[in-house]
Design a protein that fits this description.
With 818 residues, this protein is mainly α. Helices cover 59% and strands 0% of the residues. It is built from 36 helices and no strands. Helix 21 runs antiparallel to helix 23, helix 23 packs antiparallel against helix 24 and helix 35 runs antiparallel to helix 36. The longest helix is centred in the middle third of the chain and has 18 residues. The N and C termini lie far apart (80 Å). The C terminus is likely disordered.
């Protein structure tokens, strides 16, 4: 075919002023070809591809367009912007169209006559003379040769004619067809001269503020894993729940993003599909191509990024039209103008022309080998344990998706921000080292939630005494560790960014977190599923100012590009948690403190010096205790006698002799009282009034709670060693077991003791009301994390809780099965 086509091509180019040569591809050198292309307004490969394709398929003036396409093809070939076999395929396609339109050379020249170009007319007369003299390529011979190579168009599965087989030969196979959304690709791989590389680098810098390879890699992974679609999706989901007034209020607060908001609300009003991920994924493919042309990506890297983009497109869209419409929506949001009305005008050619790069279905544009290699490429990028930390923490701080590792260099502002967060928000002091982070690892909290969910499975179908249990039935199948691990991951990122700790220490903690999550969740989907279910329930207890993460988590579940789907689970045979996992018995003992302080979900550890000083001042102010010796003496007193003995000796007898009680009160009220007498009088009145049911309840719980609370404080002050803390916690467990049989009785005793021994103040009733509410919250787990009593068996009582389905629970004693 080429022995006939190439001479014919050279003859037609004489109509454009070219000299007659044997092969037009050799008529000009690259510099001359570039100069001629510039004069035609073709400044680069992309513009050349568009012009060649549009000229070859222009139905309005096909003769003029096809002649121009023949010249463009020769110039592009000389400039090395298109190579064999694609040059041959384009030449055959153009020739086929010309001879089909004009069966003779004379008819072809007549179709060009409206140009009124004397030079063209003269060249045409020369061609007619050559044909009469049978010199050069014969028009008739070419027409018959092309006709003989044509074959009927096959029918597809739907019964319609498929694109001609030759149309698939116009473009490089496979993945770069997708880039036609921006510009068609006519040559791959490409060899880019240095001066052209500089042009592409300038383009990337101007378009996306990309100044080098590392910035490009960050952009590409961002487009794949989050992109603009993340914010748009969340806005759409949240606005779809709002009334029109709230939507308008949201729109009014967008300032320079007002046009974007207006388009988004128009989509909602029109019930438009809220799908625009193709905006990111087509640009991922485009930026990979440009990055290679700029010399910042190897051929293999560019192919893997492009393959990843097509892989994502194929997972989301059934065909090119669905992807194009999604892209058009995304472009509308980005530009702040509704481009839906011009969709057919802008995309009709790509979607319907036989010569379109998209004549091959989307589903057929990626070979399985490229798909698997691209997936492995992305997994390798995210195989570091730090990627687990960054991915989990990015739910709270979406900007972390831009980060490639925990150890990447940061600006001074970020370092200072992280340092302030550790110091002022977490109260994590530099002197504590990474060991201080262990107090934010709270497996007991996960155990508590798991146990509540397990119980709810059996109480959801009947009236339950716990409101929380009725809410938790949906959570029973999901391990709860992620609810506290996600906060730990965010704190670990801040710790790393602060620069306080060595890389080795941070990497060890990241590995530990990766190991734990890999053990408790089989894959990213199960982790995200558990997180979404738990977040939905837990967010009901949050204040209105706190925004639930459930929508963000749901987005990561849905989006195939989310970093979560590309994390590499740990396969370590041995692993260590980031913090201590207390035994169930130890946690039960700790929980005996009840609401005297905030719920403690982990074993205490010594505080930093400045925090010890503050806690020591509190202990001294509340109990007049100074130093370890004084604390130990008081703890021994609480364990052996406590305030309960004071009541039994000095006040209980009055319950049997009310006359004497009234007389004693009258005597003390008749004169001025010293402080000790004032306290005695106050407590006598409590006995008289049976305040807080003090005469009906065993108030040993008051001593037990104080014993545990102060022992925990002693450990934090480093006044008690671990074994001494264990001694007092064991003592508290024995007292609780001896005096009570369940948490409700214990709570009543604690309330009575709290009320009996509380001093009279103007706020007494308010204090009592708040303490009663706190006790109820601990008993009923309402809110869920108010306290742990609802999930624990009382010391010494029979087991009343159902077995959890998960392994992230606290280990029980040797005689218990959990």
């Amino acid at each position: 075919m080429s022995e006939l086509l190439v001479p014919w091509w050279a003859q037609q180019l004489t109509l454009c002023g070219w000299p007659l040569v044997s092969d037009p591809r050799l008529a000009l050198d690259a510099v001359q070809a570039h100069s001629r292309l510039q004069s035609l307004g073709v400044g680069g490969r992309d513009e050349f591809a568009w012009r060649l394709w549009e000229s070859g398929g222009d139905a309005r003036s096909p003769s003029f367009a096809r002649l121009a396409a023949l010249e463009l093809l020769a110039l592009g070939s000389a400039a090395n912007w298109i190579r064999s076999p694609f040059t041959d395929a384009w030449l055959a396609m153009l020739a086929r169209g010309i001879v089909a339109q004009a069966p003779t050379l004379k008819a072809w020249l007549q179709s060009l006559a409206p140009l009124n170009d004397p030079a063209l007319d003269a060249a045409g007369r020369e061609l007619l003379a050559r044909e009469r003299q049978q010199r050069g390529a014969s028009w008739s011979a070419l027409r018959h040769r092309l006709k003989s190579t044509d074959s009927p168009a096959p029918q597809n599965a739907a019964g319609f004619d498929s694109p001609p087989s030759w149309s698939a030969d116009l473009w490089p196979d496979g993945l770069w067809r997708a880039r036609a959304a921006m510009a068609p690709v006519l040559a791959w791989p490409v060899d880019i001269p240095l001066d052209e590389q500089r042009q592409y680098r300038t383009l990337l810098r101007e378009q996306d503020d990309v100044g080098g390879r590392e910035e490009l890699m960050t952009l590409l992974f961002w487009l794949a894993g989050q992109g603009h679609r993340y914010g748009w999706d969340l806005d759409a989901v949240r606005m779809s729940r709002q009334r029109p007034e709230a939507q308008l209020e949201w729109l009014s607060g967008l300032n320079d993003q007002h046009d974007y908001g207006r388009v988004l609300l128009a989509f909602l009003a029109d019930a438009e599909p809220l799908e625009w991920a193709a905006w990111d994924w087509f640009r991922l493919i485009d930026q990979a191509y440009l990055g290679h042309c700029a010399g910042w990506l190897t051929t293999q890297e560019a192919e893997r990024f492009a393959s990843h983009g097509i892989d994502l497109l194929q997972q989301r869209y059934a065909d090119w039209e669905a992807a194009a419409r999604a892209y058009q929506r995304g472009r509308s949001l980005f530009e702040g103008r509704d481009l839906r009305p011009v969709f057919d005008e802008e995309w009709g050619g790509l979607l319907s022309a036989d010569t379109s790069p998209w004549a091959v279905p989307l589903a057929d544009t990626l070979e399985e080998g490229l798909r698997e290699s691209s997936r492995e490429f992305v997994r390798q990028y995210r195989e570091d344990p730090g990627c687990w930390v960054l991915s989990v923490a990015s739910i709270r701080d979406p900007d972390l998706v831009h980060r490639r590792s925990l150890g990447e260099p940061l600006g001074p502002e970020r370092v200072q921000e992280a340092e302030r967060y550790l110091e002022e928000v977490l109260g994590l002091r530099r002197e504590e080292g990474t060991a201080g982070l262990a107090r934010f690892w709270m497996p007991a909290q996960a155990h508590h939630l798991n146990q509540l969910a397990a119980d709810s499975r059996h109480t959801a179908t009947r009236r339950s005494p716990l409101v929380a249990s009725r809410r938790l039935a949906v959570c029973a199948d999901h391990a709860a560790t992620i609810t506290m691990a996600e906060k730990y991951a965010f704190y670990l990122v801040m710790a790393s960014d602060s620069g306080r700790y060595s890389t080795v220490e941070i990497e060890a903690l990241a590995q530990s977190l990766c190991d734990v999550l890999s053990r408790f969740y089989r894959d990213a989907e199960s982790l995200l599923s558990a997180w979404q279910v738990w977040e939905t329930v837990l967010s009901e207890d949050e204040t209105p100012e706190e925004v639930s993460l459930a929508d963000d988590i749901a987005w990561h579940r849905r989006d195939p590009g989310s970093p979560f789907h590309w994390l590499t689970p740990s396969r370590s045979l041995t692993w260590l948690e980031p913090g201590v996992r207390p035994t169930l018995t130890r946690f039960t003992a700790i929980s005996l403190a009840g609401p005297l302080n905030e719920a403690l979900w982990q074993a205490p550890q010594p505080l930093a010096p400045q925090d010890r000083e503050a806690l020591g001042d509190w202990v001294e102010h509340q109990y007049a205790l100074q130093g370890a010796a004084g604390l130990v003496d008081f703890l021994d007193f609480l364990a052996e006698a406590g305030d309960r003995q004071d009541y039994q000796i000095n006040y209980a007898p009055y319950t049997l002799n009310r006359t004497r009680l009234e007389a004693e009160i009258a005597i003390l009220e008749s004169g001025a009282c010293a402080e000790e007498d004032r306290v005695h009088l106050m407590r006598l009145k409590h006995v008289r009034d049976n305040a807080c049911h003090c005469n009906d309840q065993d108030m040993t719980a008051w001593d037990i709670a104080q014993l545990v609370d102060l022992a925990l404080a002693g450990r934090q002050l480093d006044w008690l060693a671990e074994d001494r803390l264990a001694h007092y916690l064991d003592a508290a467990m024995r007292l609780a077991e001896r005096h009570y049989s369940n948490w409700r009785d214990y709570a009543e005793g604690l309330y009575s003791g709290f009320g009996f021994f509380m001093d009279d103040t103007p706020e007494r009733d308010a204090f009592l009301q708040r303490f009663r509410e706190a006790l109820t919250a601990w008993l009923e787990a309402e809110p869920l994390l108010a306290g742990a009593w609802a999930s624990l068996d009382f010391p010494g009582s029979p087991m009343t809780h159902w077995t959890s389905l998960h392994v992230d629970i606290l280990p029980g004693g040797p005689s218990l099965l959990h």
